[in-house]
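User: Please go through the entry that follows and flag anything odd:
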Amino acid sequence: MNEQKVIAVTDDDAAVRTALHRLLTSSGFSTELYASADEFLNAAATSKADCLIIDINLGTTTGVELGRQLSELGYKSPIIFMTAHDNNVLRAQALRFGCVAYLYKPFPSQRLLDAIDRALSQAKPT
């Protein structure tokens, strides 16, 4: 029933957003695409996302900080973090935050799809 599931992608790199949109839609998911933490925060109240994929480096805000802000707003969707630049501190924060997966770009498509399956199976019904 992937066609009913919505995956929100927040990444400041348009090429990454496009690539993930193509992968996710070809795998039967709907997508919401956001270029920044602020853009997602502004849309969070109306987002239909069942799972979030968030880049760790979003300019002035980290993906972990976005996750914290969303949690404070009561947003409960599981999060998959991704990054092209490993940072031990941010990785530790993301793992403590309880992310479903922490992926290093570039990653195999199947690794992301497996993480999404785990996230969706762990998600609590609303």
User: Anything to note?
Assistant: The helical segments are 14-26, 37-43, 63-72, 88-97, 109-122.
